[in-house]
């Protein structure tokens, strides 16, 4: 027994010594490890100080502001706007040992208050917070409803003093004007991407169309970053240094657009769009002396602010789509004839139809207006007149001339995707149809460039939309665009004569552009009615199936503005004609723009008001002489009579100089006048006073009458009058 006890005690002692030795060795190793770490500052090849610093060093991206897009006067068209993203800190740990709560304490109250300011119900907000709490998350956002909050909303939420509710600054692309040269300005795509260097998410903005895309590199800035030391929760530690690499903002682009003129154009086009519901519309306003585009728009288009309508309007029709220009092309046929000495305005041709190269060229009035002068042919927009004029010019000379006007080649405008159009001359007949605007194609911007030569005394100016590019970081202009003369296809004398000739299309009784007349400025220009090619070949036909257009300028003597407007397939019905929608845009925009630019109204010669006297009981000869002195046109019913027994308009009414004044005599013998050009109102007045019934076909103005002038009416007389909207109307109007 004694021996066993001794062995046990001895064994226990050795076990204790062994344990003591092991712990001693571990302590020695730990001591050596600590000593080495203190001496070297590293462990396992890692710098411990750097690791700790890295763990507590935080980085934040500093977003660069995308460059602004402005009009020529500095009015904002597109800019980055500061908005805010709201988030809630929900972990109680962040508020531990602190005097204030930095996390959401009262979920129900927070949900109830926030629902007043964002588009979520209290129940939806509560569900978002509670779900995040159960997932043991640090913070939570409120989806789309909590983003892009304006500063006004942020301030209201902050005033509620809700614990745990915080905001992060965001930059959002903002377009304050809505529909405003939308297809020119373009839009951006905004997304969050992870930075390869910092692994942080940063805002990435890239242009998707228009100026935003073409000049994306110039508009895009360079992001900066902020580095600082923080505690476990990411809070900035006191007395610690910050390192800031500032962001470099994108460059600002000034367009040649003028906000006021652009607004005039947008408003007018929207009204016409609503009234006539056309398939599409295109319009450009430019300064012919410089080539600056002051306004441009199209329909369909979209709202820059809401992007409504974007799915139907991606391309810029004004530069990226060609059209057959129709009769507006006659402007350049006329200019070519004048420049080459082939224009004789008083020479005549047979209107209606013209056979050439086994094809028949037809006027809008296929029966024609008889043998008329070339000047009247321009005024009436005669295709046959242009075909005859081409014969005088010569096909090669004509096509070469169109090339000098820039047709068939790109203008070089500072926009993407421009197309060139095509001068069609595969067959001889193609050149003939080109003379009046069918077959060959052009872009609206080419029409503006070519017409600048007419308006600018022969010097053709290249169109452009970028005025300058400025670096906001330095204030320096990095790019300045200047007016560029593309050529001089005609002389100043020719340009002046073209303007004077085209002005008669507005002022002449035969002119197709009478609706474009201005009370304050002399307008010069050319209407167009173009057939539209069908996909399967051939052309669409019908009143509502044409492309109606006008290319013109004002004031005629020294044009300050040139404008092109085209309306495709408007719903005209019975009441309106093709020049109605185009003139409504042109007249409104041109008149308001010239006055906005402080262009003094001209002293345009106008018909004076005349107060109608009492001619009843006067002798026919006396009444006729008095009317001549008052510059009124007497229409006598009963040429064999001696005394006036009835008149219209009646005594005291106000009419314009040159107006018809109907006088019925005491004779029952009625001899027909020439009704050509008479309005429907005048025809009905004559019918009423004569006591005879006529057959009246169509609307607008008389083009033909079945009985010749001088025919004496009797009970068996059958008079048929044909009226058409497309023919010239009288400018003589009766005022009430």
From TrEMBL:
The transmembrane residues are 12-36
| Annotated CDD domains | PASTA_Pbp2x-like_1, PASTA_Pbp2x-like_2
State the InterPro entries in the record.
Answer: Beta-lactam/transpept, Beta-lactam/transpept-like, PASTA_dom, PBP_dimer, PBP_dimer_sf, PCN-bd_Tpept
Task: State the UniProt keywords alphabetically.
Answer: Membrane, Transmembrane, Transmembrane helix
- Indicate where this protein resides in the cell: Membrane
Give the family this protein belongs to, as stated in its UniProt record.
Answer: Belongs to the transpeptidase family.
Can you say what this protein is called? Penicillin-binding protein
Q: What is its main location?
A: membrane
Q: Is Nuclease given among the entry's keywords?
A: no
Q: Where is the PASTA domain?
A: 666-725
């Amino acid at each position: 027994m004694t021996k066993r006890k001794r062995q046990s005690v001895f064994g226990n002692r050795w076990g204790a010594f062994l344990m003591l030795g092991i712990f001693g060795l571990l302590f020695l190793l730990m001591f050596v490890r600590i000593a080495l770490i203190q001496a070297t500052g590293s462990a396992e090849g890692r710098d411990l100080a750097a690791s700790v610093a890295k763990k507590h060093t935080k980085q934040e991206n500093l977003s660069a502001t995308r460059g602004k897009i402005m009009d020529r006067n500095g009015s904002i068209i597109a800019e980055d706007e500061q908005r805010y993203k709201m988030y809630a800190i929900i972990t109680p740990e962040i508020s531990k040992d602190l005097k204030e709560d930095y996390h959401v304490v009262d979920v129900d109250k927070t949900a109830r208050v926030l629902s007043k300011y964002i588009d979520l119900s209290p129940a939806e907000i509560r569900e978002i917070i509670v779900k995040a709490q159960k997932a043991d998350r640090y913070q939570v956002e409120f989806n789309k409803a909590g983003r892009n909050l304006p500063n006004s909303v942020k301030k209201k939420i902050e005033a509620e003093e809700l614990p745990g509710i915080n905001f992060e600054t965001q930059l959002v692309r903002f377009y304050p004007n809505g529909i405003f040269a939308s297809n020119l300005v373009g839009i951006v795509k905004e997304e969050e991407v992870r930075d390869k260097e910092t692994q942080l998410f940063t805002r990435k903005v890239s242009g998707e169309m228009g100026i935003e895309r073409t000049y994306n590199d110039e508009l895009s800035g360079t992001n900066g970053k902020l580095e600082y030391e923080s505690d476990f929760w990411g809070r900035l530690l006191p007395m610690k240094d910050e390192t800031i690499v500032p962001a470099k903002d994108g460059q600002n682009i000034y367009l040649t657009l003028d906000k006021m003129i652009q607004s005039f154009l947008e408003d007018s086009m929207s009204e016409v769009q609503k009234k006539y519901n056309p398939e599409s519309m295109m319009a450009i306003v430019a300064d012919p002396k410089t080539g600056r585009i002051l306004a441009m728009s199209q329909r369909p288009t979209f709202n820059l602010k809401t992007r409504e309508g974007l799915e139907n309007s991606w391309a810029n029709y004004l530069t990226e789509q060609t059209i057959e220009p129709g009769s507006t092309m006659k402007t350049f046929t006329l200019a070519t004839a004048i420049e080459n000495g082939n224009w004789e305005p008083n020479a005549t041709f047979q209107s209606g139809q013209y056979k050439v190269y086994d094809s028949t060229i037809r006027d809008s009035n296929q029966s024609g207006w008889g043998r008329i002068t070339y000047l009247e042919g321009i005024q009436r927009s005669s295709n046959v007149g242009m075909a005859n004029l081409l014969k005088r010019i010569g096909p090669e000379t004509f096509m070469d001339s169109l090339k000098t006007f820039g047709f068939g080649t790109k203008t070089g405008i500072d926009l993407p995707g421009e197309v060139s159009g095509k001068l069609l001359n595969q067959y001889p007949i193609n050149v003939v149809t080109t003379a009046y605007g069918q077959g060959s194609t052009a872009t609206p911007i080419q029409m503006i460039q070519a017409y600048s030569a007419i308006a600018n005394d022969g010097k053709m100016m290249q169109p452009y939309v970028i005025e300058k590019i400025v670096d906001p970081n330095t204030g320096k202009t990095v790019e300045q665009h200047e007016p560029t003369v593309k050529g001089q296809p005609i002389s100043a004398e020719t340009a002046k004569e073209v303007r004077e000739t085209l002005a008669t299309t507005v002022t002449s009784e035969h002119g197709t552009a009478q609706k474009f007349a201005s009370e304050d400025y002399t307008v010069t220009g050319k209407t167009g009615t173009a057939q539209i090619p069908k996909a399967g070949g051939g052309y669409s036909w019908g009143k509502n199936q044409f492309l109606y257009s006008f290319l013109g300028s004002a004031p005629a003597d020294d044009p300050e503005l040139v404008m092109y407007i085209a309306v495709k397939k408007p719903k005209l019905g019975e009441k309106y004609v093709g020049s109605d929608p185009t003139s409504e845009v042109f007249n409104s925009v041109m008149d308001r723009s010239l006055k906005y630019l402080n262009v003094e109204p001209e002293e345009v010669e106008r018909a004076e008001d005349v107060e109608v006297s009492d001619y009843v009981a006067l002798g026919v000869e006396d009444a006729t002489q008095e009317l001549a002195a008052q510059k009124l046109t007497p229409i006598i019913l009963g040429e064999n009579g001696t005394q006036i027994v009835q008149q219209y308009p009646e005594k005291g009414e106000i009419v314009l100089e040159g107006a018809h004044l109907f006088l019925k005599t005491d004779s029952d013998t009625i001899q027909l006048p020439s009704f050509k050009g008479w309005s429907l109102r005048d025809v009905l007045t004559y019918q009423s006073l004569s006591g005879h019934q006529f057959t009246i076909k169509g609307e607008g103005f008389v083009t033909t009458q079945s009985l010749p002038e001088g025919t004496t009416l009797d009970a068996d007389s059958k008079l048929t009058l044909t009226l058409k909207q497309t023919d010239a109307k009288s400018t003589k109007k009766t005022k009430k």
